[in-house]
Each structure stands twice: as structure tokens, then as C-alpha cells.
Amino acid sequence: MYYKILTSISVLVFSAWLWAAPSTISIVPEPKQTIVSKGVFSLNNQTKISYDSDKSKPTATMFWQTIAPVTGYQQPITQRSVVGKNHIHFQLDSTLTTPESYQLSVSVEQVRIRAADVAGLFYGMQSLLQLLPPDIYANHPINQLSWDIPAVEINDQPRFSYRGMHLDVSRHFFNVDFIKSYIDWLAFHKLNVFQWHLTDDQGWRIEIKTYPKLTEVGSIRNQTVLGHTYDYQPLFDTTAVKGFYTQAQIKDVVAYAAARHVMVIPEIDIPGHSTAILAAYPELGCSGKRPVVEDNFGIFEAVLCPTEQTFAFLQQVYQEVATLFPAPYIHVGGDEVIKKQWLASPFVQQLMQELQLTSTEQVQSYFIGRVSNIVTALGKKMIGWDEILEGGLAPNALVTSWRGEDGGVAAATLGHQVIMSPYQFVYFDAYQSLSQREPKAIHGLTTLKDVYLYEPIPAQLPASQHHLVLGAQGALWTEYIKTPQQAQYMLFPRIAAFAEGVWSQPAQRNWSLFTQKLPLLFARYQAQNIHYALSHLVPDIAIKQVNSGQSQLTIANQLDGQIQVKLTNETLDHIYSEPLLVDSNKQVVSVSARLFAPKLGLYSLPVQVSFAHHKAVGKPITLKYPAQSDGLQKLNDGIFAFDQFYRADNFAIFYDSDLEAVIDLENKTSFHQIVMGIDAGRHRQLHPPIAISVWVSNDKQNWQRVTQLNASEINGPLLSFAVGKQIARYVKVHAVNAKNSTDPQIPKLPLYIDEIAIF
């Protein structure tokens, strides 16, 4: 996903620069305190590895198992209380009282890791490994003369006790080897919770012995949507997606994670997101129909019915789940429940009367309350997405706040513990840059810097309730992530930015310092064959419309490097040094830019923006039917979206209504052409208008139609059409929405328009 300078010289320079001096300290996440001394400790074939007790032995052993395949050294591991020269010693220390804290002391003579508990000892080991050259992670022999560790004193402890990452294995299934690698990556970044999203509409992925059809039927879907789930004309492949984890495999994964101090929390998502359940056991639904396992993505009407049969089913399922997962928590989902089938169900209506429930939100609260009782009786605590707040929150429930911060604040105000996971900052299925070369993602933009700057404690939360925020959790949903390589690309390096936000103290967090640590971090990723993204290198292009029909281009970059720019019809890049003025009053102009980072020897992905200082830019515009949010200004800001990946905030959006816009050119103006953006440039296929007409007037009373297009003449993403030579003050554009949506996920059909350019 990036361009390499494939010369031996650049590779040598890159490697030498990465590890130019043994005093380099580059640990992610940033420790609480680091004091650098002179000199190095040289790890060699005479170095002894020791530990003080049986509790510290597993960490010492894991350290040896990491370095032995690379160094070729066969150090004996011994228990001892007195440590001499050329020792690496692991020790539990009762004087350290903060959970998961550690002290790492490296001198010329020896290395000591002291910790409050075995988790702290493990995290001290992770920091020690990051002090070694990056090749220590290679897992195969490296012919290196020395393995030097810079002398340093590190005192460290986590900011939050809950530092989590989520993985969705329902939409696309990932095998046990990948799951173990995922856990390794969490441990590398000192994250300690893995939320395993095991069930959803598109597949049930956990063996339940009492209900074998859950995997016999619910784990298989016959096909998967191609493109995007909300495309105008979605297509499907013909490949079945299947797979599940046996209970033996789950026990193996849980044990593997525990050895790395990662707690595994299972998520069994109910009462919505349950199509796979109902495909196996339709009697648990309200509709009386058997659905098929969903081959599309999104939110669906299938929902569990709140019957005693359903709760008996869930009792058995959660009982088997509780046996497999020793974690004190079970996540029950509770999100995105469409309640249409409840409203249509005579049983649910009768239940509402009996329980004096006045809304389906209260039905959901009743449902979640019953499930909470099941989970509590099993000795576990229930976690749910923030929708479980609707209709009343079950006692002792924890809330994962994903739709923003409001859910977390509301839950904390009620005295409940919360886990912050706002999609705007920590959902890693979003795009990482504005480059069209980025692989298909669900939607939205979450850059590396966005993740890094996220603060888990909401600003509006009173200090007296800060303790209720256990921490934060990143999420990797896999609707559009099919392969391990793509999962890595979406995860790295954003997981590092997230880890620093939940481990490091606020005073130690510094974006500039973090970016300086990235080259060494990338070298460690490379040694582990991790396919990471370089999206943070992509430049930002800002367009400002100025007088005389010109546009001003300002291009910024996050890191040092050389920005190369190319305009429409140019064949060669030129070096950007200052803002550019571009004549753009006669046609749509495109500019592309990319960054060359000399220290990495790499080009960034290219980014492109199209613009025009056309005759309607900034002119007064009125709408007969309002656009969503601030969409009005998108119609004539001079910046187009036809060559961008889909972002809702790039468009004026009209739900179940037409675009009828009147533009006041303020004076009688000559023009002959109109250009409209009606679609995104990549990864989405938006619903086009079914007819467009253009009218002109000089008094806003008497209108003359100058052109009309039917559906066959409307082709995006950029629609350009002549209107003859016109001289008029007012221009009215009417684009007709197809309306009448046949997709239950889109009850009101949207019409997207991103620009009305007049030339």
C-alpha cells in the first residue's frame, strides 16, 4: 500500500538510521518516567537470565523464548536471589503497590525488572524488548555482532486498568492462529482486554453443545455483498463464508491470552443482530419466519422475542459461555435493535400490557434486565453497548459508550462503570487518510492523529465520576476486512496511538514525540511481518477560493519530507514550497499530492482534490426542501467529492425529498454549462437523481426551463451538461429523488449532491 525506493543504498541508509545509536529510547506506549544513563548492557551468549520465584518464572521464560530463536543464545534460566554481573533478572517486589507497575533498571553490568505483580513484570519485559534492536522480534536467526541495551531507569504504570481491543469475527471469520497473533499484538502494546465479537447477523462463531444448529446452520452464509452494503445496485459474490471455534479452541485461546495477561471477554449479541440465531432456531423470533444468515451488512429487523423459551435458550447459551471464559464479564451487545417485529407481535403487545410497558424501549430494557439476571446468576457482570441505557439501565451493568461520549457520561452519572469506545476516534474500520488508494472501509475518517489525541475522560464528566471510567477500547469491525493482511493494515499503527492514550499519563503524551518514535516502531512491525499502514504520511490539501476566479492551494504534512504536486494535465510532479494560486474559473481542476519521506525512503499514498472557482461559488442559495445538517454550503463551496471516498459531510443530503435550489448570481451573468457532483468517487455507489431540470430567471418570478435530463442521461459521479448560452441572475436546479426505498435499512431514500458548478 505504499511505494518503496528499491535500491540497496536506501535500504542500508534506512536500517542504519533506525538504529544509529544504542542510546536510542523509543518505547510505545510512552513510560511514565525515563532517565537515560551512559553506556550499554551487552546481551551475549554468556548472559544469564534469572528470576526470584515461581510466579516470575513464566515471564523470564517467555523473554528467553523470544530472544533465543533470534540470537541463537542458549542461556540457562535459573532461580536466584543474589544477582551478579551479566544478568537479566525478573523480580516481584512487594514495595511496589500499584497494579501492573514495574521498574526497569539497565546498567552496564546487569538488567533488573521489578514489578508489583506478574502483569507488571510482563510489561517490563515488553519495554525491555523494545530497548533491543528491532530485529529481536524476527523469530529467526539474525547474524548480529551485538545486542546492546541502552542504560536507563524506567518507572512505569498504566493510566487505566481497562485497555481493550475488540475484534469482529462474525462478518469475516479469522482462524485461531490469527486470533493468537491478535492477542500478541495487544500484549506488545500493553493492552489487557480482548473483546471477542463472536455472533452477529452474518454468522455465529462459537460452539454451543446444547444448540448444535447454531454452528451447523448459523455459522454459514452463502454469499457476501460486493461493494458497499448501501450501494444503489449492490452485487453479491458466490462464495460461502463459514467457520466457528470449537470449545476446545476457545479454551486454548483463553489460556494463550492469560499467559500474556490479556483478559478475553466474549460478546454474544442480543436481542438484535440475531439473524444467525433465528436462521438456526426460528421459534425464538417474533415473525414466525425462518430467515437466512445475512449476506448483507447493516442493521436488520430480525430480533429475538422476549418469551420464556428465548430466555431459557439464553440461559443455556450464557451458561456454556461462562464456563469457557473465566473473565468476570460477559458482553451482551444490546445495540441497534429494530423494534418493528416487536410492535407487530401479539405476544409482545400482551406482554407490554401485563408489565405496564408503554414503549418498545421499555421492552428492550425488560429484555436486557432478564439477560442481566442470567449473567449475574452465573457470577458474571454484564456489559452492553450504550443502547442498553434506553428504557432504563439494569443494575450493576457496565456500558460501552460507542455512539460518542454521551452514553458514557449518562451511565457514569447513574453510578455505572463505563468503557469509552466512541466510533469517531477508536473504530479502526474507518478510513485512515483521504487517499483514494486506501482499501475499502465502512465510512468516515479516523486518522492516526485523531486516535492519538483522543482523551478517554469526557470533558463534561465531573471529576468525582472520573473513577467510573475504567478505560477505553478500540474496535475492529470486519464487514469490509476480509483478510489478515487487511486487518493488519487497518489496525497498525493506530493501535499504537490508542495504546499510548490508555497506558501513558497525560503529561507523557506528545504527538510530535510519538511521530518521532514511528520509524523504530515500524521496524519492529517489519520484523514481525506486520502489514502496517503509512496513511499518516498522506498530505492534507486545503482549498480557499480567492478573487479573480482563482483558488489557493495550501498543502500540509504531518512529518518531515518533500511534498510533490501535480495539477490537471501536468505530466511531471513539482515540489511544493508555498501556497499556490490556480486559475479555476473555466473548468474543474484537480490537484494531486504525495509526500516523500527521505528518512523512510518511502512515498505516501497520493491524495487528490478537485475544485473550481465557478460563477456560483459563495453566492446566496435557497432550498425548497432543507438539506441535512449543514449540507447547504456543500452545494457551492467550489470543492467536489466525485473523486473522494464516500463521506456524508461532503454532500448536501436530501432524505425522501428533491433538491430544488435557487442560486442568486447577484447580477445578470453569462454562462453555458452546469457541472454537478452526484456520486462518490470510490467504494460507494450512491442513489442518483431520476431527473434533472434547470431554469433561469431575472426576477425570480418568471422562470424559463433551459434543459431537462431523464434517468438515462444522468451518469455520475460527475455530471456535466450544456444549457446553451444564458444570461440570467437566478438559476434554479431541480433534481428529483427516486424515493420509494425498497431497502428496510434505508427507509428514507437519500439524494446526494455535492456541488452545483456554473461556468
From TrEMBL:
Protein name in UniProt: beta-N-acetylhexosaminidase
Keyword Kinase: no
CDD domains: GH20_chitobiase-like
UniProt xrefs under InterPro entries: Beta_hexosaminidase_sua/sub (IPR025705), GH (IPR017853), Glyco_hydro_20_cat (IPR015883), Hex-like_dom2 (IPR029018), HEX_bac_N (IPR015882)
Gene3D superfamilies linked: Chitobiase/beta-hexosaminidase domain 2-like, Galactose-binding domain-like, Glycosidases
Coiled coil ranges: none
GO cellular component: membrane
Domain Glycoside hydrolase family 20 catalytic: 160-505
Pfam families the UniProt entry points to: Glyco_hydro_20, Glyco_hydro_20b
Residues annotated as catalytic: 336
Source organism of the structure: Pseudoalteromonas tunicata D2
Keywords carried by this UniProt record: Glycosidase, Hydrolase, Signal
Alphabetical GO biological process terms: carbohydrate metabolic process; glycosaminoglycan metabolic process
